[in-house]
Amino acid sequence: MSARIRILEAAERRFAEDGIEAVSLRQIAAESGQRNTSAVAYHFGSRSALVAAVYEHRMTPVNARRLELLAARPDDTIRTYVRALVEPLAETLADAEKAGRRSWYLRFLAEAMRYPEYDPGTVALDRPEASSIRALIAGLRDATAGLRLPPGVFVERLRLLALLVITTLADRERHPGTGVGTETLIAAGAALLSDPKE
C-alpha cells in the first residue's frame, strides 16, 4: 500500500473517530507510519485538500455503483432515486463486514457535514466522483415536480435526506449488525421527499 493511501485511510479513521478539527496532520502522519511528520503536507498540502482526497478515494467506487443503479432504474419514481442514493453507501458497510474489516467512511461523512468548509454537499458536489449525485438531484427534481414544492423547500428536503441517510448509516457503521435496515431507510427517505406540504 502506498504512503498516500495509508495517509488517506489513517485520516479517514481519525477524522471519523475524533473529529476533523481535533486531529493534527502530524498525528495522521504518525498513525499512517510516516517518519516524516510533514508527509501529509507533502502529499496533500492542507487539511481541506486531505478531506477532499478522502472523498475522492471513497466516492469513486460509490459513484460508479450509483451510476449503474441509475442506468438500470426500473422507473423514475422518488423511491428509485432514493434507493440509488442509499444502496451504494450501505454496500460499503456490507463489503467491509464480509471482508472482516472495519469501516469509517460513513462516520467521516457525518463528521464532515458538521462543517460548511468540509461539507460534501458543497465542497464535493462539482467533483467528477460526484456525477451520480448530480444525476440523482436532477432525477429527484423531476420526480417531485408534480408536488410543486418551492425551490427552497426542495433544497431543504434534500439536505434532510442527506442527513438522514448519512447519520443512519454512520450509526450502523459504529455499531455493526444493528440499526435501521436499508429498506426502512429508503422508505423513510422517499416519504420525506413525497409529502406535498411545504
From TrEMBL:
InterPro entries: Homeodomain-like_sf, HTH-type_TetR-like_transc_reg, HTH_TetR. Residues 7-54 form the HTH tetR-type domain. Keywords: DNA-binding, Transcription, Transcription regulation. It comes from the Bacteria. The keyword Transcription applies. SUPFAM superfamilies: Homeodomain-like. This is TetR family transcriptional regulator. It comes from Catenulispora subtropica.
